[in-house]
Amino acid sequence: MTYFADFGLAEPISRALSDKGYTEPTPIQTQSIPPVLDGRDICGIAQTGTGKTAAFALPMLHRLAANPKHRLKYATRALVLAPTRELVSQIAQSFTDYGKYMKLSVTTVFGGVPIPRQERAMSQGVDVVVATPGRLLDLVERGSLDLKYVEILVLDEADQMLDLGFIHDLKRIVGLLPRQRQTLFFSATMPKAIEDLAARYLTNPVKVAVKPAATTAERVEQAVIHVNQAEKPALLQLVLRDQSIDRALVFSRTKHGADRIVRQLGNAGIVAEAIHGNKSQPQRERALAAFKAGTCKVLVATDIAARGIDVTGVSHVINYELPNVPESYVHRIGRTARAGREGQAIAFCAEDERPFLRDIEKLIRQKITVLALPADFRAAVVAAQKVERAAPPAPREEERRDFGARRPSGGGRPGRDPRAQVTPHRGSGGGRQDQGRSSAGTGGKGGGGYRGR
């Protein structure tokens, strides 16, 4: 099929697509929409930025429109699970946009906002709930959401949900759903754990893979610069003064590192915002809105943003620190070269990050082009150090090290820090923090609660 019109989608959906100027589907949409319309389960593998959201949202909306039902209190007909607040908001907005000519109700459910507000939204029943797993279970446990009427389940970015330790929450949620349902499963990569998850939750699925797992965006020009860790601030400031940069997304491995980068850029006269798990939901929304609007051209993020930011104008992705999980590199650079545009990805590699670089090149099956330090780099280092000495002292909190920042000894790929695998405590306010995080990975015990990335 070549055009959206060929799918026979309901007239209100076709009209909404026409308003957006969408006429030709992407490969993942072409291969996924027909079987979803036929009621089949799907296992879809496609890199970020290929149009996965529309691949499940459009046929889901068509099925809801073709079989309208009265909304039941505290119930939903369609449930979409995603790993982060930003991705939840992005998916919900897509449902709202594609269903704007339908009598459709869409509700987002995630941590960081008062839970009574979400309970009120659910009280009259909704058509589509888009949620993080942890906060969704909070609503279920409080009797504010009944999952036994769900007709369609979507697991989006399933591999990241496993990375963030949501496996136990996913098992609990699926156990609360009707056995007779349609399940749509989408992931950017297909490690063994994802294959096992798909086999457990899907029934005779149609398998769709539009790109080999872990390939990088074709239009992204990739480069790496080898630089001492202490001199990265000067290099970043030098790179960001390039007038060709429209919007730059800078990735830090840690939350406090992201705040430190923003502070250093501010001292150098470069406006930047940070987005990570320690920021409140309003702070994250304001930072992302400013970045989308172009009023702030530099957004510093941890990997929470790698799959939750859909901004077509990101011209550059800068890996200020290389990720210690190579798959994260693929998702990071997928934030540029979107909607048919080209983009650049520049990585800063310190000596102790060379093993990370080797892992990344092995995963993507290519060598990344090495660039020399700019000719005026030494002068930039001296200037940056001078500015830093004159700046106010950094908050003491920034000096703390985050979990997972170091590669463990022994040369293997780093595992998750066991301190990150704790069962979060239930505070008096009712509800998990941040992405609605779960009791994680290996069933470790603890009372402090792990704040998501």
From TrEMBL:
PROSITE patterns per record: HELICASE_ATP_BIND_1, HELICASE_CTER, Q_MOTIF
Coiled-coil regions, chain positions: none
Residue ranges annotated for the DEAD-box RNA helicase Q domain, each copy included: 2-30
Sample GO molecular function, one term: nucleic acid binding
Organism: Sandarakinorhabdus glacialis
Family listed: Belongs to the DEAD box helicase family.
Motif stretch (Q motif): 2-30
Enzyme Commission number, as recorded: 3.6.4.13
Protein name, as recorded: DEAD-box ATP-dependent RNA helicase RhpA
Stretches for region Disordered: 387-453
Residue stretches making up the Helicase C-terminal domain: 234-381
Residue ranges of every copy of the Helicase ATP-binding domain listed in the record: 33-208
Bias kind Basic and acidic residues: ranges: 395-405
Enzyme class: hydrolase
Keyword hit for Hydrolase: yes
Any single GO BP term: ribosome assembly
Enzymatic reactions: ATP + H2O = ADP + phosphate + H(+)
One GO location term (cellular component): cytosol
Gene: rhlE
Pfam entry (one): Helicase_C
Compositional bias per record (Gly residues), positions renumbered to this chain: 441-453
Keywords: ATP-binding, Cytoplasm, Helicase, Hydrolase, Nucleotide-binding
